[in-house]
Amino acid sequence: MTEIEAMKALSMAIVVGLGMIGPALGIGILVSKALEAIGRNPDATSKITTNMFIGIVFTEALAIFALVVGFIIKFT
Fold first, then answer.
1. How many CB atoms lie within 10 A of CB 65?
2. Which GO terms describe its cellular component (predicted)?
3. Which of 19, 21, 24, 65 ranks highest by number of CB atoms within 10 Å?
């Protein structure tokens, strides 16, 4: 493995690792608050769950962008 290839692999690992921290924290907070809201108002479970999954999808998109940037760094 050349120095450039090693540098690309390390860069990919750093970009993806740091890029996953934000979405992981965001999803954790989002789900905990949704469960808290369901505990306070069980009648609104379906509405809260729907909004929670929409929020998870948008937050997960950020993690996918980080992965794509990591692959771009690795394979260019």
1. 12
2. plasma membrane; proton-transporting ATP synthase complex; proton-transporting two-sector ATPase complex, proton-transporting domain
3. 19
Whether pTM exceeds 0.85: no
What gap in Å lies between CA 41 and CA 23, rounded to an integer?
26
Type of residue numbered 57: V
Nearest to 20 by CA among 60, 53, 73, 76: 60
Return the residue matching tokens 């979405």.
23
Q: Is 76 helix (H, G, I), strand (E, B) or coil?
A: coil
pLDDT single digits (tens) 15-38: 999 999 999 999 999 999 999 999
Question: Domain-by-domain residue ranges, the chain?
Answer: 3-75
Q: Rounded CA gap, 42 and 65, in Å?
A: 35
For the segment 56-73, the average pLDDT, to the nearest whole number, is 93
Please tell me the CATH superfamily of domain 3-75, with its number.
Answer: F1F0 ATP synthase subunit C (1.20.20.10)
